[in-house]
Amino acid sequence: METVGLDVLDQRISGCRACPRLVEWREEVARTKRAAFADWTYWGRPVPGFGPPDARLLIVGLAPAAHGANRTGRMFTGDRSGDVLYQALYDVGLASQPTAVHADDGLELYGVRITSPVHCAPPANKPTPAERDTCRSWLVQELGLLRPTLRAVVVLGAFGWQAALPAFAGAGWTVPRPRPAFTHGGHVTLDAADGPGLRLFGCFHVSQRNTFTGRLTPAMLRDVLRTAAETADLPVAGRDPR
């Protein structure tokens, strides 16, 4: 039942046209393209979550990249941020391969799902507060479907953290007040009146601004992913190449 529910939700997300500015931008990018991808047929629609419906660990980003997921139709696929994230997931034993090139490249995630609080590529990578709030209902529904198995969440970046906290509350977990602030490596437990609690971990976003400057290193990312996976009772690999 949950599998069917999540499949249907993903289809509904892919057809959403609720935010005129985002619809116009994602479709314009898909028409004009980037020269390096001139032979691609861009996805150009909202990008649904990626990963199994019984995931124990959820990774929450920000929004699809204009020439990454907006091109390929899969979260963090086809851009340098995804290169960093999937390499780390592979190193920790949570992905079948270290690269994500296109939606049919055979990549599988083990016990992990990836989503975002905003499902359309925004201009300058900056959704407005209204667009963030409009998209929240999708995340609330996704969390509700994942709730039977979900035990831990890694949120990438302060925007994702701030956007996701109300969604966790909407899906039935209790968010402390005052709301916990975002910190890299920080964590908080969200209790629930009618089920298991949820461990929430903060991690700097895998954007080039952070990875190129060394603010987020591969080792730092692996440490957060490994800790969250162990908290969610997922098996992790011992390899730590860099």
Automatic annotation (TrEMBL):
<dbReference type="InterPro" id="IPR044147">
    <property type="entry name" value="UdgB-like"/>
</dbReference>
<protein>
    <recommendedName>
        <fullName>Type-5 uracil-DNA glycosylase</fullName>
    </recommendedName>
</protein>
<keyword id="KW-0408">Iron</keyword>
<keyword id="KW-0234">DNA repair</keyword>
<feature type="domain" description="Uracil-DNA glycosylase-like">
    <location>
        <begin position="48"/>
        <end position="225"/>
    </location>
</feature>
<keyword id="KW-0378">Hydrolase</keyword>
<dbReference type="InterPro" id="IPR051536">
    <property type="entry name" value="UDG_Type-4/5"/>
</dbReference>
<dbReference type="Pfam" id="PF03167">
    <property type="entry name" value="UDG"/>
</dbReference>
<keyword id="KW-0227">DNA damage</keyword>
<keyword id="KW-0004">4Fe-4S</keyword>
<dbReference type="InterPro" id="IPR036895">
    <property type="entry name" value="Uracil-DNA_glycosylase-like_sf"/>
</dbReference>
<comment type="similarity">
    <text>Belongs to the uracil-DNA glycosylase (UDG) superfamily. Type 5 (UDGb) family.</text>
</comment>
<keyword id="KW-0411">Iron-sulfur</keyword>
<keyword id="KW-0479">Metal-binding</keyword>
<dbReference type="InterPro" id="IPR005122">
    <property type="entry name" value="Uracil-DNA_glycosylase-like"/>
</dbReference>
